[in-house]
Structure formats: C-alpha cells, structure tokens
Design a protein that fits this description.
The chain is mostly helical. Helices cover 30% and strands 0% of the residues. The chain has a domain of 113 residues: Cytochrome Bc1 Complex, Chain D, domain 2 (Orthogonal Bundle). Helix 4 crosses helix 5.
Length: 175
C-alpha cells in the first residue's frame, strides 16, 4: 500500500501508461477514437496491450493484403515481393526479425507508424500505407497491433525497397 492508501500500479499498468504516454507525447491520438458502437474488450484496469486483440485488428484492417507473402513458408506478415497494385511500394516485413524486420522498433514507434503512416524516424511512409488514425483507429488498437507484431516469430524475408512518389512536405503551399 502507498501512503495515500492506494495500491501501487501493477507492472502491466506501468508499461501501458508508458506506451500510451509515448503515443500521446508524439501527438498521435488527437481526434482519434474507436468507431461509434464498436465493442472493446477492456480486460480490466490493468489490461495492457493485447496480442490477441492486435491479431484481430490486423485481420479486420486487412494488413496481410500488403504485408503477407503468398508463400506461407516465408512467415506471418513477413512482407511482399510484389508491389502493392498500382504502385512501386512493397509491404514491409513486420516480424521482429533483426535483419529484415522490425526487431529494434518499440511498441510506441510501431503504434505511431500504424496511426500516422510514418517510419521509425517520423518520416512519411509511401502513400500506399494508410494513416489509420484518419480511419478512426485509436492508440489502444495501435498498441494492441504492436503487441501482436512483437509476438510474431521472426521471419528473415528481404523485401525490395519501395519507390514512392515525391511527398509534399507538411505546410508546403506550393503547386
């Protein structure tokens, strides 16, 4: 018990608070929220990100359409060798493989990428990658997706580099 008579937060609650603080600190959830009437399994006061909820969100959001190889032997969400139709963008390897995947990415960076369509350094991804915050995704769902991606078996699968059209910098009022 703490001096004020309350219990100290659990480790899960502390980890969740740090991840949410990172996402909030990056300004990623302004105006975001779940869709009206969308059911949420909160899982109690100490519920943190859930890989099971993340797996469900990945299926609902159809992430595998771009990030899943047609060859199941290459691993779950290990990226595509064929470009997204109509682009020269390739769905990257989302597994925690240290050479070809997202091994060094923390949950907050993964959530930022999903919500705002930015890479680990905050630079815009190719337009083929939606900014799911614009589609109503909230920080909780993005952190669940991050938990799921981090739970995947690492799959070494080299994906070709994407060639994106020139991206207009934010605030550029030019033609």
């Amino acid at each position: 018990m703490m001096r004020d008579g309350t219990r100290p937060p659990s480790r899960a609650a502390e980890r969740r608070a740090r991840a949410v603080a990172l996402v909030l600190g990056l300004g990623l959830v302004a105006g975001c929220g779940r869709g009206a009437g969308e059911a949420v399994d909160a899982g109690g006061p100490d519920a943190g990100p859930s890989a099971a909820r993340g797996q469900f969100a990945v299926a609902v959001r159809q992430c595998g359409a771009c990030h899943q190889s047609p060859n199941a032997g290459e691993g779950v969400l290990s990226g595509q060798d064929a470009p997204v139709p109509g682009t020269r963008s390739y769905g990257s390897n989302l597994t925690p493989d240290p050479d070809t995947g997202m091994d060094a990415w923390d949950a907050g960076s993964i959530a930022a990428s999903v919500l705002r369509s930015v890479d680990g350094d905050g630079r815009p991804l190719c337009p083929a990658m939606p900014a799911y915050a614009d589609a109503g995704m909230g920080a909780d769902e993005a952190l669940d997706i991050a938990a799921y991606l981090q739970s995947l078996a690492p799959a070494w699968h080299l994906v070709p580099p994407s060639a994106c059209p020139p991206l207009k910098p934010a605030g550029d009022a030019g033609p």
